[in-house]
Structure formats: structure tokens, C-alpha cells
Design goal:
Oligomer: single chain
Structural class: alpha+beta
Shape: extended
Largest sheet: 3 strands, antiparallel
Strand order of the largest sheet: 1-5-4
Radius of gyration: 17 Å
Number of strands: 5
Distance between the termini: 40 Å
Strand content: 25-35%
Length: 93
């Protein structure tokens, strides 16, 4: 049975957010890593990234973000073997 209080405050760190700042719009650099840095998204061969099927899914899901969130615009994005980087812009609705 999962106890919702089991990890309460155990793994929390102080927020780095500026108090009073409105984070609902702006530019954000996002990094998403795989669990245990496992190379699920593909591999680099001859200095070129070759996406696995999972990597292709990650890329497709990233590109579909504006379809689900019309106030989000995408910018640069790259899939690496064990993580992705992307820049997105949030606009107020």
C-alpha cells in the first residue's frame, strides 16, 4: 500500500523560484533525463545521433506539445542518447 505521507518533506529542497515572480509566461530551457541515465533514446555513431524507436517517440511527443497546449511555442530541441534539451516559450492565455 502506498502511503502518501511516507516521503513527506524528505526529498524536498528549498525552491529557487523568486517569490512574487509570475512564471506563467516566458522562455524556459528544459532538460529531461532518462532514469539512471540509460541510453534509451539512441546512440551516437560517427558524430551523428541515431534515434531509437523510443527516441523517435520522444521527438514526436515534444513536437506535439503545442497541439495540447496552444499557449506554448517550441524553439530549439535536441535528443541525446540519455536526455533531451529543448527551449519553449509560454504565453499567457
Amino acid at each position: 500500500m502506498n502511503n502518501p505521507l511516507l516521503f513527506q518533506s524528505t526529498f524536498r529542497i528549498p525552491t529557487t523560484r523568486l517569490e512574487g515572480r509570475d512564471y506563467s509566461e516566458g522562455s524556459y530551457f528544459v532538460t529531461i533525463c532518462t532514469q539512471r541515465r540509460k541510453c534509451w533514446f539512441g546512440e551516437i555513431k560517427k558524430q551523428e545521433m541515431h534515434l531509437s524507436e523510443i527516441g523517435k517517440i520522444a521527438e514526436r511527443c515534444w513536437n506535439q506539445i503545442p497541439c495540447h497546449f496552444p499557449n506554448v511555442t517550441l524553439d530549439a530541441f535536441v535528443v541525446m542518447p540519455n536526455h533531451i534539451h529543448g527551449i519553449l516559450f509560454l504565453q499567457k492565455m
